TrEMBL record:
This is L-threonate dehydrogenase. InterPro entries: 3-OH-isobutyrate_DH-rel_CS, 6-PGluconate_DH-like_C_sf, 6PGD_dom2, 6PGDH_NADP-bd, HIBADH-like_NADP-bd, HIBADH-related, LtnD, NAD(P)-bd_dom_sf. GO terms for molecular function: NAD binding; NADP binding; oxidoreductase activity, acting on the CH-OH group of donors, NAD or NADP as acceptor. Residues 170-287 form the 3-hydroxyisobutyrate dehydrogenase-like NAD-binding domain. It comes from the Bacteria.
Length: 306
């Protein structure tokens, strides 16, 4: 067993998981991937990775397992369900849980992993598909020092920054909740601003360029605004992801007794866009929804000209 090149399993080869898998391969790590989509497995194997038949097969072959599924329920299924990874894994395998979920779910899953003799890191990620592909994501991570030590070659390969937030699981999930509050509200605000600019008859490319040098700019305005200007709603992060994530934010806030009026409004917007058939489009498509509400069509609108 070469601890400088640990066999790395990646469960979930969406835009973030695929980015991690390919980054690990570039760093010379052996990578085993699992995804329900044959085309994702084909991409991985074409790059030099291996495909697992199920989560148990992946767990048996991995020293570090990155989990990039959609939610806590899926994480529990691939870890502890029939043919799950944990039962087949060697004692001391490191599980890096990169799923956006309620802090209580992160605490529960990491506790169950520890009880099974595994090492667990609560490590949601941020940075988007471009940074994931470049191995430059940020990780908000909490777990025992031994887990970080064993997973170090993998974490270095897939991330630019690992924020170590202590040993207690849930700290990563809490930080990700704050991040997603800001991200979701900023996407909604960017969409509203660009829909208003379109209603004013302004050149959206010019608006996008100018605002990036002004105080009203945000990372999300710069990033998602480019999608709106290009009329490209390829789902790097879909509308329905923020229906889920802002739902986590508002539920956690209610549990903490904290008011979140802006998050509530943004969540309502994402839900409305999803109900209008935009759930699987890029989350910038909330701008399409707002423009339609005003009787307009933005570039790239699937119903443009309808």
């Amino acid at each position: 067993m070469d601890h400088t090149r640990p066999a790395t399993g990646v469960i979930g080869l969406g835009s973030m998981g695929m980015g991690a898998a390919l980054s690990a391969l570039r760093a010379g790590l052996p990578v085993i991937g699992l995804d329900l989509r044959p085309e994702a497995l084909a991409t991985l194997t074409a790059a030099g990775g291996q495909a697992a038949t199920d989560a148990a097969d992946l767990g048996a072959r991995s020293e570090v397992v990155l989990v990039y599924v959609v939610n806590a329920a899926q994480a529990r299924e691939v870890l502890f369900g029939p043919d799950g990874a944990v039962a087949a894994s060697r004692q001391g395998t490191v599980f890096v849980i990169c799923v956006t979920m309620q802090p209580a779910d992160a605490q529960d899953i990491c506790a169950r992993l520890a009880q099974a003799g595994m090492l667990a890191i609560d490590a949601p990620v941020s940075g988007g598909s471009v940074k994931a592909a470049a191995g430059e994501i940020s990780m908000m991570a909490a777990g025992p020092a031994a887990a970080f030590d064993r997973a170090a070659p993998v974490l270095e390969a897939i991330s630019a920054t690992v924020f170590r937030l202590g040993e207690d699981p849930g700290a990563g999930a809490r930080m990700k909740t704050i991040n997603q509050l800001l991200a979701g509200v900023h996407i909604a605000a960017a969409a509203e601003a660009l829909a208003l600019a379109d209603a004013f008859g302004m050149d959206l490319a010019e608006v996008h360029r100018v605002i990036q040098s002004c105080a009203g700019n945000s990372w999300m305005f710069a990033n998602r605004g480019a999608h709106v200007v290009a009329g490209d709603y390829t789902p790097h992060s879909a509308v329905d992801i923020f229906v889920k994530d802002l739902g986590i934010v508002t539920d956690a806030a209610r549990g903490a007794g904290a008011p979140t009026p802006l998050s509530d409004a943004a969540l309502a917007l994402f839900r409305q866009a999803s109900a209008a058939g935009m759930g699987r489009l890029d989350d910038a498509a909330v701008a399409l929804f707002l423009a339609r509400q005003g009787g307009r069509r933005l570039p790239g609108d699937p119903e443009e000209g309808a």
